[in-house]
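During the second half of the funding period, the structural biology subgroup turned its attention to how the target accommodates small molecules. The most pressing case was adenosine monophosphate, which had performed well in the primary screen but for which no bound structure existed. We therefore specified the complex as follows and requested a full 3D prediction, including the ligand pose.
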Amino acid sequence: MTAVGIDLGSTHCAVAVLDRDARPRILTTAHGATTMPSMVGLVAAGGRVRAVVGEAARALQRAEPDAVVFGIKRLLGRRADDADVRRWSAGLPFEVVAAGNGDAWVRVRGVELSPAVLAALLLAELRACAERFLGEVVDEAVIAVPARFDAAQRQAVKDAAALAGMTVRRLISEPTAAALGHGAHDRVARRYAVCDLGGGTFDVAVCDVGGGLLEVLAAAGDPLLGGDDVDEVVAEQLAAAARARHGDDVRRRPAAWAQVIAEARRVKHALSDAATAEAALPDAATGAAGGWRTVRRDELALWAAPVLRRLEAPCHQALARAALAADAIDEVLAVGGMTRMPAVRRKLGQILGREPVVVDNPDEVVAIGAAIEVARLDGRVGGVLLVDVTARGLALGVEGGRCDVIIPAGCVVPTREHRLLATTTDDQATLAFTLYHGDSDEPARNQPLATYEVSALPAAPAGDALVLVEVTVDVDGTTRVSASELVSGARPPLRVVGQCGLAPAALAELARTVAEWRAT
Ligand code: AMP
């Protein structure tokens, strides 16, 4: 059994393995890059569907924008009616739809797909990449997920891994992985603020390393803040410059607009290394180059300022949740591709009161850290124990009643809690309860995870039949529920009535689909 470390990013993925000396090593994809775009495209070929991923999907996107899905991670384990999902999905070239159970799925080329299937296609490619390199079967992974991911999102990642033929040895939170990848476990005791600004998300976590523990004290983030927002403001400036010259608005043509966004991104990258860059302006009619405009680094910083201001709230929130002032942080660690942009580093430095340390390989460090976790689980590196906390609370509710928060947010995992539920009518044979995500006693303010029904309860007066419900949060933040009937001590049948995520019974069939779409 060989395990790999995976960074399943919103814009890019990466995979790392351990060499014989347990040293982590980032792998290159079939395209020779160390990261792979998190994009999946569907191609109809001879009446069958074929999936293309990574660079091939990016190439397909240029020709057929509506055949390619990106931002898959933003939809994993989310509900279609979630405010973030609704905001993000407006104006996408593919459709976000509600599955039968309310989960956010996508419709692409007329096919409705769970984001877990799309993520599985990405993971299967990373797995193939590792197998090519190692020359052996890879069937296990440590996968990094944002610290703020709730149980449903974590379960969706585990389902995706299962569909790609891998068992998750552990889900590790991204800031922990970044700290490990940075070598924090080998150094002196320190308190870190790990700031991860990628293409689509910003996460900040306060971590404590010391006494043999690596502990996430608090995490916060903005799931809708990233490099894409900077690309957008730069593209708007380029389009405005073109409009001033040609008088037409390129924004109205999606294919042309996609090219302007790509040019904006190229200019943004160039300005991380140079003080000026030449930007090709879109031609009014075709979207092709229609003149040039020199962009200065300070102009880029000015355009991006409103976007970068949004880094402030999550940083302050993470500090507040950890009950720490900025000066209690020993080191600010900047990870994620966007921290290559000087204005981002400056802004983080301003907010957190010290110059961030930029890791050498900001878009590889998370996968490297995940591979180090593989080594740690194998006992090949010692020294630290990882301590993670629940991102959101878990509450239990019965129909018509209030919610009872049984496991609060910020609780160290693994953890287990139980509650006694009593029947409310004579000879009541079934009892239903719902497990929610959230920290409120009002059901409407929480998010239902699953509804369970306990049946075959013994005949008894109201209140005399008691069901003990046990909720476990595993070390990787996923949940398990069990129930027993207290009078007889029996385990009555427990049925899941409504559940988010994929039904376990559907996994085998979907795994075949993933394999087929890759093969054809
Ligand atoms: P990640 O999700 O961590 O891979 O980060 C991807 C984001 O980093 C995208 O918005 C990229 O445009 C951005 N990025 C990558 N390289 C650079 C660079 N050299 N300068 C500025 N931004 C970059």
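Two results from this model are relevant to the next phase. The chain has three domains: 3-186+361-384, 227-303, 394-500. The first helix runs from residue 55 to 63.
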